[in-house]
Amino acid sequence: MALLLAIEASGDLCSVAIGDGKGAVAEATSARIRGHNEFLLPAIDELLSAGGYCLGQLDGIAVGAGPGSFTGLRLGIGVAQGLALGADLGVIPVSSLAALAQAGVRDGELAAGELALPAVDARMGQLYWGCYELVAELAVAVASDRLDPPQALAAALGPLRQRTLVGLGGGWALGAQPGLELVRCRGQVTARAVDVLRLAQREARTGGVLAPERLEPRYLRGSEHWRQSRSAGATAGAGA
């Protein structure tokens, strides 16, 4: 098993964790919305020191790579990238929606046979959302993460909306979506670094480690974005 440091800063809760994949995990969290930058590096130093590790002993650094808060993503990815480059380590990007689904697993909110729909408010009337199921205690993607207006979720799910659906995350504060029947909705579920760490251990085993210079935030763009882009391009072309 790999010894990994994990960072999750894509939401209101910022956290770091370190674990060896054998059950030993240490974590530090901060709920200070504007204090992520002051929290991360001291918390990482404290976790490493408490565990008797130095940065060079790690097998990699995992980070919640989005979608989520632009500021939080840039901070988390910048810290992960800088530390990895300095210590010659690989990085493991983890979908922040996958981490939110894994938080549902951790909280006992997702059972076998159910589909988790983690959702985060993307502002401007849209949601970042995904579709995950439980496989061997891990959240596994059933479809790609998306950015859509709430009313488009049912159509995007297609036949999957007939399965037992569980809403996870603050995005569901926008209310129930037309065409979707949720068996339960848990808006209080929040992704933490321990969830990123759990998923990153799987990625480390299956070759999901990247060179740090390849690490980028995952900013999703939905169909509306592309329609606007094409429209803008056509207008520019017409005026040329």
Keywords:
single chain; 240 residues; Nucleotidyltransferase, domain 5; five-stranded mixed β-sheet; 6 helices; 10 strands; 33% helix; disordered C terminus
Can you say what the CATH homologous superfamily of the largest domain is?
ATPase, nucleotide binding domain
Sum up the overall morphology in one term: globular
Distance between the termini: 58 Å
Q: How many β-strands, per DSSP?
A: 10
Q: Considering DSSP H and I runs of 4 or more, what fraction of the residues is helical?
A: 25-40%
Proportion of strand residues: 25-35%
Tally of helical segments: 6
How many structural domains are formed by the residues? Answer: 2
What's the CATH topology name of the largest domain? Answer: Nucleotidyltransferase, domain 5
Residue runs with pLDDT of under 50 for 5 or more positions? 223-240
